[in-house]
Amino acid sequence: MRIRPQILYCSILLISLATGVASAQNAGASSGYPVAQGKLTEPEHRGKGLYRRYCVGCHGVRGDGNGENAPYLDPKPRDFTQATFKCRSTASGSLPLDSDLYATITRGIHASGMPSWNPLPSRDRSDLIAYIKTFSPRFHEEQPGPALPIPAEPPASAESTQRGAAVFQDMNCWSCHGKDGRGNGPSAHTLTDSRGYPITPYDLTTGSRFKCGESDRDLFRDLMTGLDGTPMPSFTDALKPDQLWDVVHYIRSLQTNHGQDGEAAMVGSKTETGK
Ligand code: HEC
Ligand code: HEC
After folding, report:
1. Which ligand has an atom closest to residue 213 CA?
2. In this predicted model, what pLDDT tens digit does every residue of 74-115 receive, in sequence order?
3. Ligand 2 center to residue 174 CA distance, Å?
4. Under CATH, to which class is 158-261 assigned?
5. What's the pLDDT band for 274 if we cut at 50, 70, 90?
6. Taking every pair of C-alpha atoms in the chain, what is the biggest distance, in angstroms?
7. Domain 5-147 part of CATH 1.10.760
8. Which ligand is in closest contact with the Cα of 193?
């Protein structure tokens, strides 16, 4: 979704809010749902009402990502029954912490149809999380891993950027992301996500925002944990923390407008998509 994303988010959001009420009514009688066993707790029950109002149009009544707007979205809405999440502070393959989900819902996901839900009261956001966790039995069977520690960032420098460029070369980041980070590497057009949908690596030279946050620490975390359900791997075993910071500095050097549009773009996304 490269074309005028803000406008697209807004219109999609309006559609989904408009259709949400209707879908919620139709959904009342669905059977065997949610997968979770019996009675919902009080927060889950509250979350269900909010979900049926705000989320169902994209994520679907069953939480499987097949809401009525899903055909028009790329990337597709998350399938909560898999419990596979891109934005985590936990190790690759591990469940996210509630705080990870809370941060995602609050922030929204840049370059996707997922809006920021910052305008909802914090209790609503917590209850929504309680409810979306009922879609997968994994949340009953497994513990989320602990948050992986993010060491202090060493100062950015020309040397660090240069070392990061070398790592980008050595670790074959370019094969997907392209030599200049524009998302056009030789394997870029062959990539699919875990549900089989085509996925392209984000053009690292545009803007200064990333799916899972926009700070250097967020970027470090992306590289450390990987984005589960996508071809973007975790580099925590292959690279030392200092090398990861070098890569962060290198990626920042690709963003020609980093520091200029960040603030304004963020405020824009909250006010425009959050309504
Ligand atoms: C207009 C469509 C739309 C609506 C409405 C919407 N989402 Fe999403 N959501 C998406 C899309 C698309 C993605 C996948 C983005 C991606 O993979 O980059 C997503 C992803 C997510 C994720 C996964 C984050 C991760 O780390 O993988 C969570 C959690 C989520 N949405 C929660 C919600 C909740 C809660 C609501 C309702 C308050 C909601 N969404 C409403 C489109 C929507
Ligand atoms: C096998 C292909 C592949 C390799 C190798 C790879 N990536 Fe990725 N990367 C992806 C894809 C695909 C995405 C997009 C995921 C998405 O849209 O959810 C991505 C996402 C990212 C993001 C997050 C962008 C965003 O939108 O938030 C960063 C940063 C990144 N990659 C950097 C790197 C670096 C640095 C390396 C090497 C150390 C690397 N990648 C290696 C495929 C790859």
Report:
1. 2
2. 999 999 999 999 999 999 999 999 999 999 999 999 989 999
3. 10
4. mainly alpha
5. very low
6. 62
7. yes
8. 2
